[in-house]
Amino acid sequence: MKSQHCFFCTQQCPLFGPSAESDMEVAGLPCTDQSAAGNRLYQEGPTAKVFLAHAKRHIEKETPLLILENVQELHMGIIHKLYGLWYNIFPIYVDPRDVGHSGASRARVYIIMAHKQKVAQRFDCRKMYARISAAMKALVATTPKDYFVADKIDIQLEAARVARVRKRHLKPKAVELDYLLNHREQKAVEDAKQIYWKKFHRDPMKDENLVVFLGDNPKRYLCWSGLSEHFLLVSHSDSFSCAMPWRLRLCGREKLSTLGFPVSGDTALSMGVPRLPVSDPARASQISGNCMHFSCILVIQLISLCCFTRTDSD
């Protein structure tokens, strides 16, 4: 279970008081039984006990404000059954394009839950999200190529990692990493090119926004940006993607970039924060495969703090 306290609160929060570190919790509960790509067992699946444990813990603690993140296929019935007696429940269906990341795709539901005895609603959180989203989409809309921010060091670190895992000879001066692909992945690239040509009647090598996920067989299930022009942010931390013109260079920094993290100078500057250093590509890939979209959760936390207030504090 991914769990964390509010990004905005440190010592004291003007809305929730000096004990704000325990007043809000954000958690991403397991989605393997909920996702369309999973086993679809929902509340009958093995991860249901995590939902039960989370609900029991916070009902007993009377945590004022909870935010749960999960796939949009999540059955809301189990949420209402577990939390409904104690919390007012506000699901918000979110996509990265809502916060300007049109070049990425990780649709999720964020469920804001306000304790019925401790928290009062000041504004409509769904309307607030819609207004903020409209303002952000009017300012920026990314495309897949915007996320290729890796420098030479990032590429070489990724190449060294892959070569070590696959027992391949490392070519330090190579910019393109196609020599590290196995036979199945090479075939997947060729199949994706053929499908692209048949659909669009143009050269896929000239499409700078074309990204293909190589973990699947394109003839059976094609995960690419060819139709939607955005990344599908997959959770396979060690799976490869390739971009056209031919580049196998979806490095750890670039995976975090698709998730809205300030890993490039321009992104950090626009967010008004220091650049996030990325020195371990394996760790970066692991994080990107299991975390929330950074910009999405920041907006959700912002509207949570703006739309709700404590009623039992001095």
From TrEMBL:
Gene3D superfamilies: Vaccinia Virus protein VP39 (3.40.50.150). SUPFAM superfamilies: S-adenosyl-L-methionine-dependent methyltransferases. Keywords: Methyltransferase, Transferase. It comes from the Eukaryota. InterPro entries: C5_MeTfrase, SAM-dependent_MTases_sf. This is DNA (cytosine-5-)-methyltransferase.
